[in-house]
Design goal:
CATH superfamily of the largest domain: Pseudouridine synthase
Order of helices and strands: EHHEEEEEHEHEEEEEHHEEH
CATH topology of the largest domain: Pseudouridine synthase
Radius of gyration: 22 Å
Low-confidence stretches: 1-6, 322-327
Number of strands: 14
Structural class: alpha+beta
CATH architecture of the largest domain: 2-Layer Sandwich
Helix content: 10-25%
Mean pLDDT: 89
Number of helices: 7
Length: 327
């Protein structure tokens, strides 16, 4: 007789804040799994509330115990692609990687392969069964040209726990950015809404037709020659392009960010920065520090990723300690 591996289950308890939500919405918000995928599992009886199968439209109540029994993995259609990964931490539940600039995080329009996710699936195939089928294992992302720290989940338990921490703003993220100009104070906070740009649909804006609350705190790290400033940024929310949009709205776009006004045109009136201009090939934004609670052990984990070489060389050039490419 063959042994059958037990199916993994997730158990969630409804808090007062979530009472009244539809069951499918509650599960989507707490697990990061897509509503369409959950709809199939709900119809198949994979979800029970206090031991009873409930429809997607059921309104959860405070204290409800929701158990999601995960079915066997579905084919993702994503091809594992071995490539070097800078893994800073890994255990049975999750891993933390340092993403280089220029690498797309997951497949999408124009990028069917060659992404960080393809590489992660080659390194740990179990990711295919975790989270949303279109981007398994991922709980957050970075823009293609933003470098730095990213955490991925290797189990459903870790995925649900990390998604919840991001939603409850218990994940601490700190970025370093080189920006144009001198900020008005040594530190501050940017608030407002961010949403899709009303006319340029590939961009985000602080003046959208519809937007969501966005909060970023900033601190000046170093004022550099040429009127450039190195700043430390902490997003308190997780909106698309949040840091880049907030800095542009403040009048200090990220150096190299052509989308939001920080690109090559800014260098034209500053001939003394010609050497620096040659070193800038992308927005100089780096996810430097990441801190979260391990979903299983409860330990608080903090990671730091050093600046990538291109960012570092720009700073060295500005400080007068280096210029041009390495010999």
């Amino acid at each position: 007789m063959n042994d059958v591996a037990p199916q993994e289950s997730l158990e969630l308890t409804v808090s007062g804040v979530d009472a009244g939500l539809r069951l499918d919405r509650f599960l989507t918000e707490k697990t990061g799994i897509s509503r369409s995928r959950l709809a199939r599992w709900l119809k198949a009886g994979q979800v029970r509330v206090k031991g009873t199968v409930r429809p997607a439209s059921y309104r959860v109540r405070e204290g409800d115990r929701v158990v999601l029994t995960l079915p066997p993995p579905e084919p993702t259609g994503l091809a594992p692609e071995p490539r070097p990964l800078e893994i800073l931490y890994e255990d049975d539940e999750l891993l933390v990687v340092n993403k280089p600039p220029g690498l797309v995080v997951h497949p999408g329009a124009g990028h069917r392969g060659g992404t960080l996710l393809n590489a992660l699936l080659a390194h740990c195939p179990e990711l295919a069964a975790v989270g949303d089928i279109s981007r398994p294992g991922l709980v957050h992302r970075l823009d293609k040209d933003t470098s730095g720290l990213l955490v991925a989940a290797k189990s459903a338990l870790a995925h649900a726990g990390l998604v919840q921490q991001f939603q409850e703003r218990r994940v601490e993220k700190t970025y370093l950015a080189l920006v144009w100009g001198r900020l008005p104070e040594r530190e501050g906070e940017i608030t407002g809404v961010i949403g899709r740009h009303p006319t340029a649909r590939q961009k985000m804006s602080t003046r959208p037709r519809r937007g969501k609350e966005a909060v970023t705190t900033w601190r000046v790290v170093e004022e550099l020659p040429g009127g450039l400033t190195l700043v430390e940024l902490s997003p308190k929310t997780g909106r698309t392009h949040q840091l880049r949009v907030h800095l542009a709205a403040l009048g200090h776009p990220v150096v190299g960010d052509a989308t939001y006004g920080g690109g090559a045109a800014r260098f034209q009136s500053l001939p003394r920065l010609a050497g620096v201009r040659k070193l800038v090939s992308r927005q100089l934004l780096h996810a430097w520090r990441l801190s979260f609670t391990h979903p299983q052990s409860g330990a608080r984990l903090t990671f730091e990723a050093p600046l990538p070489e291109d960012f570092r060389r720009v700073l060295e050039s500005l400080r007068g300690t280096g210029a041009g490419p390495a010999e």
